[in-house]
Structures are given as C-alpha cells and as structure tokens.
Amino acid sequence: xxxxxxxxxxxxxxxxxxxxxxxxxxxxxxxxxxxxxxxxxxxxxxxxxxxxxxxxxxxxxxxxxxxxxxxxxxxxxxxxxxxxxxxxxxxxxxxxxxxxxxxxxxxxxxxxxxxxxxxxxxxxxxxxxxxxxxxxxxxxxxxxxxxxxxxxxxxxxxxxxxxxxxxxxxxxxxxxxxxxxxxxxxxxxxxxxxxxxxxxxxxxxxxxxxxxxxxxxxxxxxxxxxxxxxxxxxxxxxxxxxxxxxxxxxxxxxxxxxxxxxxxxxxxxxxxxxxxxxxxxxxxxxxxxxxxxxxxxxxxxxxxxxxxxxxxxxxxxxxxxxxxxxxxxxxxxxxxxxxxxxxxxxxxxxxxxxxxxxxxxxxxxxxxxxxxxxxxxxxxxxxxxxxxxxxxxxxxxxxxxxxxxxxxxxxxxxxxxxxxxxxxxxxxxxxxxxxxxxxxxxxxxxxxxxxxxxxxxxxxxxxxxxxxxxxxxxxxxxxxxxxxxxx
Length: 487
Prior knowledge:
The chain is an alpha/beta fold and 487 residues long. It has 2 domains: 3-256 and 454-478, Aldehyde Dehydrogenase, Chain A, domain 1 (3-Layer(aba) Sandwich); 261-440, Aldehyde Dehydrogenase, Chain A, domain 2 (3-Layer(aba) Sandwich). The protein is built from 14 helices and 22 strands. Helix 1 (47-85) packs across helix 4 (159-173). It is globular.
C-alpha cells in the first residue's frame, strides 16, 4: 500500500475498494494551495476502478441493508466518535489540502462532519416513521427501504464535511456508497476511509475512487448499477451528470451554484448589516451560499459602504494555519486565474472596483484580495455569474419592490440574506424571495433537521431530516385489508 506523510500521519494514496487499497497505474499530483507543497501522487481512477467499486458496493448491499437502522446506527455512531477523536489530525490534513482556516476546521468543520454522521444515524432509528392511516378500513404503512448503491460526488471547498452530509444519510438509509471526492482535495476522504474499517463497517459498504470528473466521475454516473446520484458542484457539470443519469433513469439530487443576494433594507442596523456583508468573504469567498450581490437601499448606501470598506480592509490574509489569519488562499492556480479573469473583464467594461481587485502581491501565491465592485451593470457577467471567490458586487434600490425584483432576477436560488430592523417588514419581504434558505439578520445558521437545497438552477431536491431519506431510500406504502385472514 502506497502512502504519503501528511501532518504526521501516513495517508494512503490508492482507491479504497472493498476495505482494501487499490493502486492505479496512472496518478495525479496533489499540492497544497498554501505554498505549493507537494502532498503526494494519488491513483487516477478509470472505468475499471469504478466498476470494481460499484460491484463491491452492490455485493455488500444485502448485508448492510439487513442490519436495519439500529445495527447500522451502532456502526455509524462508532464512526462519528472516531471522527471526533481525530479532529486535530483531520483539521490539519484538510487545511493543507484546501487552504481553509485551521481554526475553523478544528472548532466547526470537523466536529460538524461527526455530527452529520451521528444525526442521520439517530434520525433513521428515532424519527424516520409515519403514523399508519386508514383508507376505507384498510391500513396504510409507510416505510423507507434502502435503494441500493449511492454515487456521491463531492466538492473541494469543504471536502470532508460536505462528503459526510451525503455519506451520513446514504449509509443510515441502508445504501452502500461509492464516493468520488474532488481531485484537488483527496486527503481527508482517504483518511476517513480507514476510519470506516475501525468502526467495523462491513467490506464494500463504503468505497472511494479518486480521479477526474470527466473519467472516473463519468464512469460512476453512467454505471447501470447505481441507484442514486448525489452531486455538489457547478451547473455545467450537473447538466452532464443529468444526461448520464437519464440513460438509466437514476434519481439525482444536486446542490449547485449561487449568486445569492444580501438585501439591506432601509430600516436595517448598519453595523450588523456591514458585519454580515464582510462575512461573505468566508473561506476566501469559496462558499456557494455567500451573498455576493449586496443590495442596499439608496438612502443608506453611503454610510453602509463606508462601514463595509473599513471592516473589509482589516481582513488579515495569510497562512491559514496561523490563528490570526482570517482569509487563506484560493484552492488552485486555475481557480485563481478564473477569479482574476472575472474582475479584469469587469474593469475593461468600466466597472468601479472600490476595494481590492487583484491578487495580493505582498503574499504572492494563490492569495486574492477581498474585492468590492460598486454598482456594476445588473446585466453584466460579474453581477450575474458565480465567481466563487472573494468578489462582491454592490447595487442600490429605491424601494422594496425594486429590491425584490433585483434579488430574484437571477438563474440561481440557493440562499438569500435579509437585514432589517423591523420583524414584520423582514417577514413580508422574505415571503416573496425565491431561495432554498433565507437568513434574516444572520448568516450560516444551519440545522440538520431543516430542508436544505436550491431553487431554479441552484439545485434539485432537499437534504436534511426526513428529506434526505426521501431521496436515498425507496419510500414504500403497504396497504393491508381488514379481511381475508384465516382464523
């Protein structure tokens, strides 16, 4: 078994199939976005490895299914505890791999990964039920039956946490899993795979295939033995996956991009509003939920902008392993170039960049300055397309109707943030916003019991609570007649 030393531990570089490591002849390089440090050569998967993983998962399915919610829950509880026991190692590994803040991984992201596993395991045992009901004397019993093999394709901006957001309900529902993590961030998926063995998970229940989307990902989504496909990523990739899934009529769930509005109403507390707006630079802007279109009432825009720029200018960029750092690097040189391209094209079109607007020359590498584009054309690329970096746009509105039209004038509908000093005003305004999640006077408050997903091109389906099981399971109704029984 080939391994690479990272953060004081040896990370296997081969695929994880049927509880064993499988190496490929071809490999791909993994480097840290912090400083370009080489992190290892990982196996580059193809249709061969994907088929092997799906076959293992299909063979393991009856065993995992027949354990039932309680039996599966006991194993998943041990897995959650193992994540908690390894929070520090996982935090260090993931910070090296994707450049996000180490303190965030320690305090929030990795504990949340454990919580994802534990929550869905407990939900399957305690909450996944529907009271029997009568139809003309007949009794209806609703159940959630395991569906088969789930293909999970996950992004690089919060690799392990977002993977467990899918792994948790899929395994708790009784499905077996083939995970394809993003090629830019394979480390924590590999470490996590070994934890499943320590938790006592049967061979073949959980599998990992590393590789590129156009090869390993395509083979996985096209495979006829896949029962569910869950993908988090971009709209163009989702369209490709949807076409592949259509060939086999495989159910899909997508959590896709966003160009969410942050609406500052005239009665807003501007200290709160400006603080929430600066929080949209979280994770170097690499957050699909971010309110990247800041819409401010024209009567308060001058004061809001001054507060915002003052606070944003204090953001400390640097090594994400340092406690004082507030913003780390972008994930990859290709992604940095993409972000810079958006801003440079906006400048050429006459956009007014009042903050940042270029890579951080003092730090070099993959660091891009927090950027604010003031009043770009509402039809412009920078205002309408997802940049997925620390680039925010600010526009003004004269009244609620105009703000609502501007907020909803997008092909996306993942989230929205409303800032208002009046409860009734906020409720009335939020009612007509088109978005899967709306935060009022707050940001990033998430509860696993709540539905999560996007409207319009921001996604298909909802995760959380029973909504997750509605996707990963076959929901069945059994109708029993009152008569016909032998006495």
